[in-house]
Each structure stands twice: as structure tokens, then as C-alpha cells.
Amino acid sequence: MKKITAVFTLAGAAVGLTPSAAFAQDDLMALGMDELRFEVQRRYDAGLAMTNDASVVAANDPRYIWASETKAQCGIALGYLKSSTRDEVSLSRCALAYDMMQRAPRPRVEPAPLPTPQPAPEVCNREAPGLIFFEFDSSTPQQDAVETVQYVVENAPACDWNSFTVIGHTDRAGSNAYNEGLSQRRAEAVANLMASRGIPASSITTQAQGEESPRVPTADGVRELQNRRVEIQVSE
């Protein structure tokens, strides 16, 4: 397998801004359950609207990345809230991503022409959203998956991404053997979606890791939304 040179996920970026996240989380955690659901849904809807805003997408606006993370994290928080559970991690990341999403980008200063080749676009050198979540016991990609795959498709030529590894995961509910197959079906579903959007099928490799590499460690048998996922990795 080729050496992986980039991993699409914003989780690390969110962790680096812990103080802001803590203040935002405290604001949400202080709300009553009904008001909390309303505020988290409002943030999710705002993130969804921005990822569909043609002017933001066409401008390669960094707010697009935070809008995508807002959808992912607020969506996770909403999943917990369906069972009246306040998940501090997803609420914190939802609030932080929403705050970052609303910050207007700085005016771009065009560099003077140089005789040497220019570096790859900034989007190629930073973490981006390639994390796709699934419903329990499902291998069917949701609308968020389509938007994430489209982001990869649109940036692959400029970033010289030529090889893609699609890795399926599950939570720890169910047997190991069943979860291995489920994670493979999830990986293949995303790989097929990528191929349908223009990525050559010959450049895509799928892997199934079942419940062996959780994003959030849990006891055996626990259903965890953040572990039911597919990660897209790229190499040049």
C-alpha cells in the first residue's frame, strides 16, 4: 500500500481550540432540553445551508470546511438528544465549528509572480472533512456523504490526489464477524459513490476494520454514532 500523506478529518483541529470550545459548550449545556434541541438543530441547519451556498463553495472559502464540521458534530449531538442525552464532546465541537463557520475569511492577498513553481493550494495541505457517519446497522450513505465525496472529487486534480483508501468502521454492538462485513459494505458503498462522481475505480482501495479502531472507545455491545463511520485517506 502507498504511504498515506493526508487524512480527512477535522477532529484534531477542533481539539486545538479547547478554551473557545469550553465556553461555547457551557452556553449550550446550560439550556433546557427543548431549547438545547432547538439551538443544536439551528446550528445544523446553518451548516447545511452554508455547504450548499454556491458562493462559499466556488470561492474555496475556509468556512465551507467548518460548515461541514458543524453538520457532522451537530448531527451527532442531535442523535444523542433523541434519547435525551447531552453528549459534551459533540455539543462542544458543534458549538465551536458553528462559531468558526461564521467568521468571515480574511481578504486574500495575491502573491507576486515567482519564477519557481507555486506550492499546492492551501486546501491540499490542511485537514478537511472526509469523515462519513452511518445510521445503526446501515451501510447506506446519507446526503452528507454525497457532499463529502463531491468535495474530494472537486479538489483531487488540483491537489494531485491519485490514490484513495476508503476504510469502514463499526461500533461495538454486534459480533466481530458481523461488524467486519458491515464495515466492508460501508467502505464499498462510499467507494462506489466516489466512482460514480468521477474518481477512477482503479485508484480506490477499500479496507474493513470492523470495531477494532473506534473513534470513541466504548465497552463491548455499546452503540456509538461516532464509531459508525467511513474515513477517506489519500496519497499522491
Could you explain the architecture of this structure?
Helix content is 47%, strand content 10%. The protein has helices spanning 11-15, 18-29, 33-51, 54-58, 63-81, 88-101, 143-159, 176-196; strands at 6-7, 131-133, 163-168, 204-208, 229-235. Helix 2 packs across helix 6 (88-101), helix 3 (33-51) packs antiparallel against helix 5 (63-81) and helix 3 (33-51) crosses helix 6 (88-101). The longest helix has 21 residues, at 176-196. It starts with 5 loop residues before the first strand and ends with a strand.
Would you kindly provide a brief summary of this structure?
By secondary structure, this protein is α+β, with helices and mostly antiparallel strands. It has eight helices and five strands; from the N terminus they run βααααααβαβαββ. The two termini are 12 Å apart.
